[in-house]
Amino acid sequence: MDILHRIGVKTPSPDLVYDALTTVDGLAGWWTDDTSGDPDVGGVLEFRFIPGGFDIEVLDVVPSEHVEWKVIDGPEEWIGTTIDWDLHQDGDYTIVLFKHEGWKEPVEFMHHCSTKWGSYLMSLKSLVETGEGAPSPRDVQISNWH
Amino acid sequence: MDILHRIGVKTPSPDLVYDALTTVDGLAGWWTDDTSGDPDVGGVLEFRFIPGGFDIEVLDVVPSEHVEWKVIDGPEEWIGTTIDWDLHQDGDYTIVLFKHEGWKEPVEFMHHCSTKWGSYLMSLKSLVETGEGAPSPRDVQISNWH
What pLDDT, in 10s, does the model give residues B103-114? Predict the structure, then answer.
């Protein structure tokens, strides 16, 4: 079972979106302030939030086209799942096709993560378009689970 | 293939969320201004947006607990899919579990609709919490597809 999303970021090429997915500063600008680690292939990125976090191995990067991650530590439901980012340019927009693949069950936490990913993707869009995202702990609160 | 979401609406009971899903005025307050039709079981609701719209049959309503819809006209990918709303109270929040079920293929339009649903659910949350949603045509633009 997969979480799917699509956003369009108004920017003349995929370069800035790609940078926001493949640099520690970029990732910290839209997902969580507390990002560290190695964003190159084979490296591990550590993302930390108030209740916990994720360790994610970088499986693939193709400049301005593709990024693929595998979750190696974090909530049980996330471990072993993959997160796939596909970028392409359509006129004035960089289109981001997002997939968080390999959920075993459609648990309530999967519902939550789907909505939360959508919200973080809007944060990524805002970061590139305006220079300011809404990463944790300044992220948009969607529920009692934050 | 299903689109899943979860939001929590800060409100003391599910009543206002239920009203926003089962009255023409409520639906017009968060999804689209141009809502008409019959929100009772067996009725058909007509939702119209700038590029087109959806005709949706109401399959089930259980006050303050459950609403289920079936799409009977609209984009080809939507016809025959079902949309399921499950409500329950958790402390200060009404939890909304949302499922748009029965997509045949994970097409780019499904990615788009997933993100767009998340955004409209935040509009529903805002409507109930503040009295003001962001229905079409004042909806949040997520891409070149709106």
Answer: 999 999 999 999
CA B146 to CA B140: how far, in whole Å? Answer: 8
Tokens of A87: 């970028």
Is the Cβ of A91 closer than 8 Å to some Cβ of chain B?
yes
- Spatial separation of the C-alpha atoms in residues A12 and A80, rounded to whole Å: 34
Q: What is the pLDDT of residue A32?
A: 98
- pLDDT tens per residue, range B50-81: 889 999 999 999 999 999 999 999 999 999 99
What is the sign, positive or negative, of the torsion defined by CA atoms of A1, A38, A29, A134? Answer: positive
Looking at the complex, report in whole angstroms how far the Cα of residue B113 sits from the nearest Cα belonging to chain A: 8
Q: Residue B140 and residue B117: Cα distance in Å, rounded?
A: 11
**Cα B124 from Cα B130, distance rounded (Å):** 10
This prediction has a pTM of 0.97
Chain B's closest residue to A140, CA to CA, is: B122
